[in-house]
């Protein structure tokens, strides 16, 4: 942590978190756009997303401070309190994910995991993929296909909400969160730093 022009430059996002974030954004975009016409690409993107999810779950346990789930996954009361504080324009400024952002991380990972699971279930019904021969082949194919599409569209909706949240938070706290996820650092006013969790 260093000080420059009355600001503290804080290293927040480690390289693996940043690579995960942008790779996930890219792979989901490709997967969503190739669903109908480029099935092979769609399948491999699904596998790649699944691998990224597994990595993030592990990194959320053993990774550095701001990557760990214990740093940003909070109870619903804290999330609600934070969202209400946004309406007043006086929301606490967190170094890492704020409570709403933490909730979004969990929601996205869960929705993506379900999307991948139902996609692999469809493959298994054609005797392909890692779930081939398992109990999932006895599920209703039309139901599974509908759930796969529902979860994919649900993920897209969460992505739009996530982007809106990033914009709102960037404006309220006068920081560039997109740049922070590229560079890994945040520049905070030195006089406002109150602790490791939020400022």
Automatic annotation (TrEMBL):
Residues 12-184 form the Cytochrome b561 bacterial/Ni-hydrogenase domain. It is found in: Cell membrane. Pfam families: Ni_hydr_CYTB. It is a multi-pass membrane protein. Gene3D superfamilies: Transmembrane di-heme cytochromes, Chain C. The keyword Calcium does not apply. PANTHER family: BLL0597 PROTEIN (PTHR30485:SF2), NI/FE-HYDROGENASE 1 B-TYPE CYTOCHROME SUBUNIT (PTHR30485). This is Cytochrome b/b6 domain-containing protein. It comes from Amphritea atlantica.
């Amino acid at each position: 942590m260093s000080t420059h022009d009355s600001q503290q430059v804080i290293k927040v996002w480690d390289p693996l978190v940043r690579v995960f974030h942008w790779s996930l954004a890219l792979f989901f975009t490709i997967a969503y756009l190739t669903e109908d016409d480029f099935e092979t690409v769609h399948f491999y993107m699904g596998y790649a997303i699944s691998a990224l999810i597994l990595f993030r779950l592990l990194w959320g346990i053993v990774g550095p401070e701001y990557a760990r789930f214990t740093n940003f996954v909070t109870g619903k009361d804290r999330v609600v309190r934070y969202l209400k504080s946004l309406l007043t324009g006086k929301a606490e400024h967190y170094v890492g994910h704020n409570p709403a952002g933490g909730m979004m991380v969990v929601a996205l990972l869960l929705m993506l995991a379900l999307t991948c699971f139902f996609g692999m279930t469809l493959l298994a019904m054609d005797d392909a993929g890692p779930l081939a021969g398992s109990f999932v082949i006895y599920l209703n194919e039309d139901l599974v296909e509908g759930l796969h599409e529902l979860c994919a569209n649900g993920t897209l909706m969460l992505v739009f909400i996530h982007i809106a949240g990033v914009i709102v938070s960037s404006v309220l706290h006068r920081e560039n969160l997109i740049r922070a996820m590229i560079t890994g650092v945040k520049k905070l006013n030195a006089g406002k730093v109150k602790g490791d969790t939020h400022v």
